[in-house]
């Protein structure tokens, strides 16, 4: 009692040649190359951002009674981490636009 359902077009589709995808100028523009220089800059910005964020968190968490200098250092590290994040977004956005 096994019945099989067949699609009448399945044989025609199996024998048809696959459609060729035309190569246009927009396809060539969609390819983004990442150079070694870009990788170096992005990795350096990422490392500096992470280090300043960790320093800011360390001062905020582990220094019980921070002095004015410690507060200033924490604010500076926090600002540098924010700027680094913005730089990473800018680098990626600029690379995506190219």
Instruction: Identify low-pLDDT runs.
Output: none
Shape: rod-shaped
Largest sheet: none
Radius of gyration: 28 Å
Query: What is the helix fraction of residues, given as a range?
Result: 55-70%
First and last CA, distance: 61 Å
What structural class do helix, strand and pairing data support?
mainly alpha
Number of helices: 4
Order of helices and strands: HHHH
What's the mean pLDDT score?
82
- Beta-strand content bin: under 5%
Total count of strands: 0
How would you describe the overall organization of this protein?
- By secondary structure, the protein is mostly helical.
- 69% of the residues lie in helices and 0% in strands.
- It has helices at 10-15, 25-29, 36-62, 68-97.
- Helix 3 packs antiparallel against helix 4 (68-97).
- The longest helix has 30 residues, at 68-97.
- The termini are far apart.
- The mean pLDDT is 82.
What is the compact description of this entry?
The chain is mainly alpha-helical. 69% of the residues lie in helices and 0% in strands. The termini are far apart.
């Amino acid at each position: 009692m096994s019945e099989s359902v067949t699609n009448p077009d399945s044989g025609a589709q199996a024998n048809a040649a696959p459609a060729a995808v035309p190569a246009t100028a927009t396809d060539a523009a969609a390819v983004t190359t990442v150079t070694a220089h870009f990788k170096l800059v992005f990795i350096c910005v990422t490392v500096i951002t992470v280090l300043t964020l960790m320093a800011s968190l360390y001062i905020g968490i582990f220094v019980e009674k921070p002095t004015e200098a410690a507060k200033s250092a924490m604010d500076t590290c926090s600002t540098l981490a924010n700027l680094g994040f913005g730089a990473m977004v800018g680098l990626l956005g600029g690379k995506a636009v190219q």
